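hey
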């Protein structure tokens, strides 16, 4: 049959099996539920752990300056940004890979290391993108329940490692519970798991953590070449909308991540803004310390109201809640125009923001305390 004859054939004659189908892994994917968005003077957007500050002025100026170049592709190898990050972290540019948000880099990590049926171990609850990225890669998510203090159960996680495990994800401070993993515990974990397993330390919120509350990940990386550090400009640096994150890993792994990257995934604007933001580190620190102060104030007041919270080291607070309490809180927050993140069966996560929004949260929770 010629193409003309095929085109002239009645469409009804086509067998139904000719329809394109998604891979089973895609059809079965849990949908990623993004933090709810809202606009308006009375809406407090506390569902996505974003920075409530405007971007750093130096980043805005860098983007404005770079805007005139957007007819050009960006530097796909992100050489300047990687060199700047390398200097900042005390590693070489060969050990750095950047991507469209740290979630983009994480996708490169998982697709780069996992074949179909390989396992990725992570704590649960943790960042919702983890199981989605793992299943999309055709790998198997292995969820290890958090311990009773809302932290990683590293003994159970080490016990969950099998010869199919390619990657372990440690999230510190953990999203959504805010609980960090102490340095010695990560160190002992690294001693316990085979060196062929890549241990990703996801530090999306590390800037908000008090010194020494979590692991010294760079020191661990220097001792254990199977460590991969994952960080982002989305949170404390305030560049969530520009999409830029990075990994630090052994040169062969970092090189592999660069090879699996979607070409030109990190725009020139994002690269320039990230470089400018690194230069403005002190300004970022000043903002972060205000968030920490607010976090402490809220935690103390909530405790006084009767809530039992684990101390959070992120820019958010976690309220564990059964279904009934969760539904009541969601309804009350919705009615008050406060967008928070609710997790079925587990609880509610509230981003720490400006004092006025935080006061609204405190007033609302006072009415629901035990
Ligand atoms: N890791 C964790 C733990 C997160 O919470 C998030 C964002 N919510 C990310 C990674 C991804 O952030 P981004 O892709 O914006 O860098």
């Amino acid at each position: 049959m010629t193409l003309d004859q095929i085109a002239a054939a009645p469409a009804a004659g086509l067998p139904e099996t000719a329809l394109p189908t998604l891979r089973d892994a895609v059809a079965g994917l849990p949908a990623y539920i993004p933090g709810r968005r809202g606009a308006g003077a009375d809406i407090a957007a506390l569902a996505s752990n974003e920075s409530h500050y405007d971007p750093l002025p130096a980043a805005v100026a860098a983007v404005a300056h770079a805007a005139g170049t957007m007819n050009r592709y960006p530097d796909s190898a992100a050489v300047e940004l990687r060199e700047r990050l390398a200097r900042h972290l005390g590693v070489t540019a060969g050990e750095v890979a950047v991507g469209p948000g740290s979630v983009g880099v994480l996708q490169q990590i998982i697709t780069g290391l996992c074949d179909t049926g390989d396992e990725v171990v992570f704590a649960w609850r943790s960042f919702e993108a983890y199981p989605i990225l793992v299943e999309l890669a055709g790998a198997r998510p292995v969820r290890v329940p958090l311990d009773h203090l809302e932290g990683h159960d590293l003994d159970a996680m080490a016990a969950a490692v099998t010869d199919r495990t390619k990657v372990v994800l440690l999230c510190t401070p953990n999203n959504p519970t805010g609980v960090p993993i102490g340095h010695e515990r990560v160190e002992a974990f690294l001693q316990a798991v085979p060196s062929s397993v890549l241990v990703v330390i996801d530090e999306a919120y590390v800037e908000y953590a008090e010194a020494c509350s979590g692991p010294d990940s760079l020191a661990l990386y220097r001792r254990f070449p199977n460590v991969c550090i994952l960080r982002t400009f989305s949170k404390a640096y305030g560049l969530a909308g520009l999409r830029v994150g990075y990994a630090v890993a052994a040169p062969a792994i970092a090189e592999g991540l660069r090879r699996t990257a979607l070409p030109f995934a990190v725009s020139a604007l994002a690269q320039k803004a990230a470089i400018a933001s690194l230069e403005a580190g002190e300004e970022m620190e000043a903002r972060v310390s205000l968030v920490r102060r607010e976090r402490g104030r809220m935690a103390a007041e909530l405790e006084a109201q009767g809530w039992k919270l684990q101390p959070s080291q992120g820019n958010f607070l976690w309220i564990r809640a059964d279904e009934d309490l969760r539904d009541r809180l969601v309804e009350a927050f919705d009615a008050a125009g406060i967008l928070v993140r609710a997790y079925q069966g587990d609880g509610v996560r509230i981003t720490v923001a400006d004092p006025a929004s935080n006061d609204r949260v405190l007033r609302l929770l006072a009415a629901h305390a035990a």
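The first strand starts at residue 44 and ends at 45. The first helix runs from residue 3 to 8.
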